[in-house]
Write the structure tokens for this entry.
Amino acid sequence: MNVARTIAETRAALEKRRSGAIGLAPTMGALHEGHLALLHAARAENETVVMSLFVNPAQFAESSDLARYPRAEARDLELAADAGVDVVFAPSRDEMYPPGFQTWVDVTEVGSILEGQFRPGHFRAVATVVLKLFSIVRPTRAYFGQKDAQQVEVIRTLIRDLALDVELRVVPTVRDPDGLALSSRNALLSPNERRRALALSRALATRDREQALAELTSANGLEIDYLEVADFDPPVLAGAVRIGSTRLIDNVVLEGEAE
Ligand code: AMP
């Protein structure tokens, strides 16, 4: 497995692999089974698999949130190698945002509802970094998790609006046996907070907004940011809650492809 730190190294590593399909899975690291599902999906249908590992500072509104985001690069590289990744692109902040950086891409409508209301600028940063990754890697297919349903919708819109030549692949949400959606942020929960966090997946599993809202409102020790039906492709019931200083999001598909 080739670990590339620069755009030039990544392009050089991929140059000789362009005759076959290239699958890209963008991640922020602290890998778990959800990320591995993306890597396995990519491995199954591409000659080359690229994983990016970049904690994108621009998509964090608060520096404290960025500072406490879990990082585990050595372990991530082992897991990526085990999953059959060919190239990891793990750039520095300056490599992605060189001094004077000022070009942003904004998916204005999809990016401003739900998560966008609570995290202004978040999806502008996501769309920009993903477009840049697409430009560096030039993947045939890109893999994203249904766990971040609004992110998928933002990327789908970005690809359509700018006619990007990449196939979007969406991988179903991977959950712990008790229903909690896997997230790098779960590592930040105390055992007690983790128990309380289960209310979110339980509420969403009702697939009914009113019922879910009633369940979440009666749950102890969490604050609801939103719980809404979103008209994405496929439509989802999506929610975000705060438990202590950790914010979790999750969603269930309401129709179309089953999860
Ligand atoms: P992150 O490192 O959290 O930015 O996630 C990287 C990619 O993995 C995104 O496309 C996420 O949607 C996806 N992902 C994260 N958690 C899960 C999960 N539990 N199941 C499926 N995909 C996930």
User: Anything to note?
Assistant: The first strand starts at residue 2 and ends at 4. The pocket of adenosine monophosphate is lined by residues 27-28, 34-35, 37-38, 144-145, 147-148, 171, 173-174, 181-184 (CB under 6 Å).
